[in-house]
Amino acid sequence: MDREDTFFANRINFFLVLQSMLLLSYTTVMYSDNDRKFIGILINIFALVITGYFYILFRRTKKYLEYLREELSLADPIYCAIWDNRKYLYPDKEPRTANWLLGIGLPCLFSTIWMVLLIVYINFFPIIFLIIFLLIISIFIMKHKIP
Questions:
Q1: What pLDDT does 84 receive?
Q2: Separation CA 83–CA 19 (nearest Å)
Q3: Which pTM value belongs to this model?
Q4: With a cut of 50, which residues of the chain have pLDDT below it?
Q5: The predicted structure's pLDDT at residue 17
């Protein structure tokens, strides 16, 4: 279980470094004197695609970690007692872990940021409806357990 947690943490670190580099390159293009609107749009679309890829990757890794947690709780009674205590603290919903917050919350946050930057950069405000749709989907995903 420790190895998979390390993989998950390394992927999140890589995701955050990649997003920061993309934001840095985007702001460099945005504030340059040259007319490079097309390059800024390409960086933005690439960042949205990368964010979607990492969202899928994080969901898959999170599901695998949940599977390992269930297997470990069957094999180890102490771990089972700890997990049952956690379920007792949150009886009405599944307890949110740091892996859930990092794996699901960060890609939703970055996709929203990139969509807002795309709207501001190309001055195309009908995309606002798309952002509202994505926000509704992300809220739905956060409130309901979707496989």
A1: 66
A2: 33
A3: 0.68
A4: 146-147
A5: 92
> Structure tokens of 80?
């089972």
Which residues does 59 contact at the CB level (< 8 Å), separation at least 6? 103, 104
The total of structural domains in the chain comes to: 1
The residue range of the domain holding 65 is 2-143
Residue 53: how many CB atoms within 10 A of its CB? 12
- Label residue 123 left, alpha or beta by phi (over 0 means left) and psi (-120 to 50 means alpha): left
C-alpha closest to that of 10 among 101, 96, 72, 99: 99
Euclidean distance between CA atoms 130 and 133, whole angstroms: 5
End-to-end CA distance of the chain: 21
27-67: pLDDT as tens digits: 888 777 777 778 888 888 899 889 888 888 888 887 887 78
Alpha carbons 76 and 58: distance in angstroms, whole number: 26
Supply the pLDDT for residue 93: 58
- Residue with tokens 């993309």, as numbered in its chain: 22
Cβ–Cβ under 8 Å, residues 80 and 87 = no
Place of tokens 């998950």: 8
